[in-house]
Inverse folding.
């Protein structure tokens, strides 16, 4: 086998290995989990849940005229208190993956986690 | 001769290269199939829905000869959600249900008539544990507005008097309610919607979709694009995680629970599910009921009814009604899990919950 052929095949193998590595490592799992907060469909904040700056507290006013006080910790987020009458968003507690969003219906506020690499497709509630 | 030997040396390399190409082609095909073709999250029917459609539909014999794309399909599904909400909402002034509650007698669309009849059938089966006429009590407790209050004994017995599904009079397209009675399709509308969306997807020959109609009703259509079952988490009513996972293929699921919509007064928790017999929030040993069946409507209606019945009566109902072909998971207030044998192979406890007590019902 001549040198050129070896070179070509060697290169091909290298490309194969590199591509394979990208395919294996480049999936969703490599992303950092980000909590996206929307009010009435508009994104008002995106919080990196891997950030060293956490825990942090955020407050947003929604379309219902109430505020939701949101606490983000490393890897998880919840609504700590809310002015809405039903308190469903507070009762839901912490979320730490993208399976189920936290929703405050009266305020049309949604907190969802993106890029966390979910193992579940949905959840009941 | 020399040339032949050279080719022999090449052979393993060539085979390796072919295998690599094969693997890539396979990967590429898988990711092509697995691609989400359309997803949408939106507010509807007093909740947040998330619809995800995979792949594309078949070429229809009508239309312009191109297959239905995921985006087009999703648009049709969202339109159907809007239509259903417009028909069933008790809070939208112009809906047939709101008009019926206000005027006492109206002509209803055929779809609504059918849904009322199906609810009627479930009320018969469950001996009134599911009752669409509990709406006055739901309102009296403040669950429609979030301004909770506790009606006194006299008010409760007056409310209980007004709850009776048998008094909903259906003559042709005309539905009539006695004075003071009101209906609410909250326990069945999302289920009926799930079946409708499911059918629409099938008619367009889609094979894979996940319809999350606000977590209380989920349709796991087909399997995941890679052929694996859908993995649905069962929420731990007391904690923040999932106590178990259900693997579903072409199945619907409905959950009723006392752990999200509730208020507390003097240390007692009052949940949003009203017992039609007492006109008061259900008070029993259960925390949540999850029903799995091929009909989303059945899942939705039965989860409510079984929650009202409680563990013992609910289990007896399951024994008495094999023809309904449903499975059920009860979670009680101590966190113990009771499930029917049909789910033995599809339900697994989540990490950290391995020591949970699980009883398989007989």
């Amino acid at each position: 086998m001549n040198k050129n052929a070896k070179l070509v095949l060697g290169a091909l193998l290298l490309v194969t290995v590199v591509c394979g590595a990208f395919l294996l490592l480049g999936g969703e799992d490599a992303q950092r989990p980000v909590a996206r907060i929307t009010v009435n469909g508009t994104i008002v904040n995106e919080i990196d849940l891997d950030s060293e700056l956490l825990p942090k507290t955020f407050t947003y006013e929604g379309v219902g005229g109430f505020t939701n006080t949101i606490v983000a910790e490393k890897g998880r987020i919840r609504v700590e208190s809310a002015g809405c009458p039903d308190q469903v968003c507070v009762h839901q507690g912490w979320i730490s993956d993208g399976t189920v969003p936290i929703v405050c219906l009266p305020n049309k506020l949604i907190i969802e986690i993106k890029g966390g690499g979910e193992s579940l497709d949905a959840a009941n509630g | 001769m020399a040339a032949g030997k050279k080719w022999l040396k090449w052979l393993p390399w060539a085979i390796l290269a072919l295998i690599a190409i094969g693997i890539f082609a396979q990967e590429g095909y898988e990711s092509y199939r697995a691609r989400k073709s359309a997803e949408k999250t939106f507010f509807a029917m007093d909740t947040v829905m998330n619809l995800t459609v995979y792949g594309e539909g078949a070429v229809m014999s009508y239309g312009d000869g191109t297959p239905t794309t995921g985006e087009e399909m999703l648009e049709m599904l969202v339109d159907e959600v809007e239509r259903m909400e417009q028909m069933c909402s008790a809070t939208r002034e112009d809906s047939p249900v709101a008009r019926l509650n206000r005027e006492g007698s109206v002509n209803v669309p055929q779809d609504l008539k059918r849904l009322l009849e199906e609810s009627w059938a479930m009320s018969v089966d469950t001996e009134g544990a599911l009752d669409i006429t509990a709406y006055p009590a739901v309102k009296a407790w403040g669950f429609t507005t979030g301004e909770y209050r506790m009606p006194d004994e006299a008010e409760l017995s007056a409310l209980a008097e007004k709850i009776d599904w048998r008094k909903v009079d259906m003559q042709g397209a005309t539905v009539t309610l006695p004075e003071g009675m009101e209906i609410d399709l909250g326990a069945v509308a999302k289920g009926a919607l799930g079946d409708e969306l499911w059918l629409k997807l099938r008619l367009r020959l889609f094979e894979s979709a996940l319809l999350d109609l606000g977590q209380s009703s989920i349709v796991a259509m087909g399997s995941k694009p890679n052929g694996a079952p859908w993995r649905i988490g069962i929420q731990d009513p007391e904690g923040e995680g999932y106590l178990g996972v259900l693997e579903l293929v072409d199945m619907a699921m409905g959950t009723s629970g006392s752990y999200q919509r509730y208020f507390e007064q003097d240390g007692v928790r009052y949940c949003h599910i009203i017992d039609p017999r007492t006109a008061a929030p259900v008070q029993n040993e259960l925390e949540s009921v999850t029903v799995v069946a091929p009909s989303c409507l059945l899942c939705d209606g039965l989860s409510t009814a079984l929650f009202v019945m409680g563990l013992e009566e609910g289990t007896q109902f399951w024994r008495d009604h094999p023809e309904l072909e449903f499975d059920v998971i009860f979670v009680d207030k101590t966190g113990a899990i009771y499930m029917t044998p049909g789910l033995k192979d599809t339900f697994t406890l989540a990490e950290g919950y391995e020591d949970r007590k699980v009883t398989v019902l007989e």
User: Anything to note?
Assistant: The CA atoms of residues 98 and 113 of chain A lie 5 Å apart. Chain A has a mean pLDDT of 84. Chain A touches chain B at residues 1-2, 5, 9, 12-13, 16, 19-20, 23, 41, 76, 84-88, 91-96, 99-101, 103, 105-106, 108, 110, 112, 119-125 (CB under 8 Å). The first strand of chain A starts at residue 34 and ends at 39.
